[in-house]
Design brief:
56% of the residues lie in helices and 9% in strands. By secondary structure, it is α/β, with parallel strands linked by helices. The chain folds into two domains: 4-127 and 135-307, no CATH class; 314-480, Transcription Regulator spoIIAA (2-Layer Sandwich). Strands 6-5-4-3-1-2-7 form a seven-stranded mixed sheet, sandwiched between helices. Helix 1 (13-29) runs antiparallel to helix 10 (245-259), helix 4 (64-87) packs across helix 10 and helix 12 (273-288) runs antiparallel to helix 13 (291-310). It is elongated and about 110 Å long.
């Protein structure tokens, strides 16, 4: 409702790549025990990599049947995927591989219970053959105080993870992704789920990846999956006890491998050192601290890297050369005593205020030091002025006027002009010093320069400005390349 999904544009692609790499690695690590046919070692409070080490070193002997099922499922899934692509068949290769392996294991007797109720390889186990029932939850206002902060944290992290997954898949499919629609859908789903005793829901990394790799092309695939799962629960739930865990582990290992994009990771590392650092930090944080912490760290890094870039202003000095052309100044250009001509570009928000104050102060000081009485400031490329920067601009104009320096603002766009009008600049700043973009027949910047030449005397100008004054008398002779 508040369209907060737009904020996700500030999560850099390096964060997404690092998050997905960590998520895929953790997904694969979580299936190692099932793939080897052993039990996980360690406890939940221990680090995942340490538990993996314990599982690999203290779980001998490995279950040879489980290992063979894992390898066979991987080879079968890869082979079927090749056939699907070659003959353009429906993307049912992973499902077909699971059914074939499960049937083979059952016929071999590996998934049927022996006389002691055990199976030779681990199976998925019994699944209830019913759907969740409707119920009206009880609500106590005191729970808002006790559970509110945790609920917001769950919602926030759930949204971030879902959007990270969606951005990763959308990048591969080149589809447009509406983050606000995702937020609204997830919120409504959790609201409705509360009436069916559901856990808080978010985007599922494994399900989304398998769905995408199975050939899903639209959002309707999610509805097909939901209906299929409901039908499977009602019709085939008893058969789930014969599905080998090693086969599921093999498919999830394959999914995790396909989630990692080595080409794009290499591209990020070659693009810039900042992208490489963000990707690495996010991935390491995901493995060391967990995915929730990784996405928060990635978002914080994105913000920390974005703000300095957004706050960076570009200031360049312009000149009117002997051919009456306005362009950027080069070292060989002579010093002009008639006017200072500068171009300002960037976001005029509070983060840029210190840099803006420094530039404007240096501009006035230079005018005083060189006895220049006119400054033309080209503001065509400034955007989104806020309170702090508008105050800096006001102080600059008033200080310049007090010191005998006339400042003309050229190329003013509508948003800046409206802000100046709301702040009543016209009460003290002459409107003839404002040159709106698009009003002058050629350019607001050229109009401001003409105004300076018209107001300045030959005695206060430098000798090389005389030819330019003469050029001004000829229509269309003055133009710019900026």
């Amino acid at each position: 409702m508040f369209r907060l999904g737009d904020l996700t544009r500030y999560i850099s692609e390096s964060v997404i790549l690092g998050f997905m790499a960590a998520a895929a690695t953790l997904l694969a690590i979580g299936q190692v025990a099932n793939a080897l046919g052993v039990h996980d070692k360690g406890v939940g409070s221990q680090h995942v990599l340490y538990r993996l080490w314990l599982t690999l070193t203290q779980s001998y002997p490995y279950n040879i049947r489980a290992v063979s099922v894992t390898i066979f499922t991987l080879l079968l899934a890869l082979g079927l995927r090749r056939l699907v692509r070659r003959y353009r068949l429906p993307h049912l290769d992973m499902l077909a591989a699971l059914i074939l392996v499960a049937t083979t294991a059952y016929l071999l007797g590996w998934t049927r219970e022996g006389k002691y109720g055990n199976t030779l390889i681990a199976v998925a186990g019994s699944v209830p053959s019913s759907l969740p029932t409707f119920h009206v939850p009880s609500i106590k206002l005191s729970w808002i105080r006790d559970l509110g902060s945790q609920s917001l944290a769950i919602a926030f992290l759930g949204l971030l993870e879902a959007m990270a997954i969606a951005k990763s898949i959308a990048n591969q499919t080149r589809q447009e992704f509406d983050f606000n629609r995702q937020c609204l859908a997830e919120g409504l789903a959790n609201l409705v789920g509360g009436f069916f005793r559901c856990l808080p829901g978010s985007g599922s990394l494994s399900r989304s990846a398998i769905n995408f790799q199975a050939g899903a092309a639209t959002r309707f695939s999610g509805i097909i999956v939901a209906v299929s799962v409901a039908m499977a629960l009602l019709l085939f739930a008893p058969l789930a006890q014969y599905v080998p865990k090693p086969a599921l582990a093999a498919l999830l290992l394959l999914t995790a491998l396909r989630l990692i994009e080595p080409q794009r990771i290499g591209y990020a590392f070659r693009a810039s050192s900042i992208d490489a650092a963000v990707l690495t930090i996010t991935a390491v944080a995901g493995l060391a601290l967990g995915l929730d912490e990784a996405i928060l760290i990635g978002v914080a890094l994105s913000i920390l890297l974005f703000v300095p870039r957004a706050a960076r202003l570009r200031v360049s000095e312009l000149v009117v050369d002997d051919d009456a052309v306005v362009r950027e100044k080069v070292i060989s250009d002579p010093i002009c005593r008639t006017l200072l001509l500068y171009d300002l570009e960037g976001e005029l928000f509070f983060g840029a205020a210190p840099e803006l104050e420094r530039y404007l102060s240096e501009l006035v000081n230079r005018a005083l030091a060189e006895s220049i009485h006119f400054i033309v400031l080209r503001v065509k490329r400034v955007r989104n002025p806020d309170l702090v920067c508008l105050e800096q601009l006001e102080h600059f104009l008033k200080r310049s006027e007090k010191l005998g320096v006339t400042v003309l603002l050229a190329g003013i766009r509508s948003n800046l002009l409206e802000a100046l009008q709301r702040l009543r600049f016209e009460d003290w700043y002459p409107p003839e010093r404002l040159f709106r973009q698009g009003v002058d027949e050629d350019s607001a910047t050229l109009a401001a320069i003409r105004s300076v030449y018209a107001q300045s005397t030959r005695e206060s100008s430098c000798h090389h400005c005389d030819p330019k004054r003469t050029a001004l008398s000829r229509s269309g002779s003055l133009y710019y390349q900026v």
